[in-house]
């Protein structure tokens, strides 16, 4: 499913057969997988877009996600720069999709606008991982 920019959401049903997971996907044997970590899942995937509401409305319509949190420039911005953010969540709130849009009229250009210009449009800004114990 196309989300925004060139970002695509793939619904994958977990199974023991990984051959058909993605075209060209090759499994890595456990012995080559690297050190064990306490990372247990993806916490959130942040997307930067030019206009927040059309993308949020589209995503809620196709995923059934609901609004989890909202932050406007007054909450997270400064006199120098700002952004607006809307966090969408799955029903169990284990999958979070924050969306950011730039704000305008501040002394400096919004970091979101800078991202959008350098990336030539909307895309994933970062993926955050969840762990129960970061020191483990």
UniProtKB/TrEMBL annotation:
Cofactor dependence: Fe cation
VOC domain sequence ranges: 41-136
Molecular function terms from GO: 4-hydroxyphenylpyruvate dioxygenase activity
Repeat listed as a keyword: yes
Pathway of action: Amino-acid degradation; L-phenylalanine degradation; acetoacetate and fumarate from L-phenylalanine: step 3/6
UniProt KW keywords: Iron, Phenylalanine catabolism, Repeat, Tyrosine catabolism
E.C. code: 1.13.11.27
A single BP term in Gene Ontology: L-tyrosine catabolic process
Annotated family: Belongs to the 4HPPD family.
Protein name: 4-hydroxyphenylpyruvate dioxygenase
Organism, scientific name: Rhizochromulina marina
Classification lineage: Eukaryota, Sar, Stramenopiles, Ochrophyta, Dictyochophyceae
């Amino acid at each position: 499913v196309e989300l925004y920019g060139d970002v695509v959401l793939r619904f994958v049903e977990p199974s023991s057969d990984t051959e058909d997971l993605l075209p060209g996907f090759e499994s890595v044997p456990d012995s080559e997988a690297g050190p064990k970590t306490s990372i247990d899942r993806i916490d959130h995937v942040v997307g930067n877009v030019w206009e927040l509401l059309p993308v949020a409305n589209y995503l809620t319509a196709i995923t059934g996600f609901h609004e989890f949190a909202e932050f406007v420039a007054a909450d997270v911005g400064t006199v120098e720069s700002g952004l607006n953010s809307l966090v969408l969540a799955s029903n169990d709130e284990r999958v979070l999709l924050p969306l950011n849009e730039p704000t305008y009229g501040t002394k400096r250009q919004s970091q979101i606008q800078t991202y959008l210009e350098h990336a030539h449009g909307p895309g994933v800004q970062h993926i955050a991982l969840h762990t129960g114990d970061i020191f483990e």
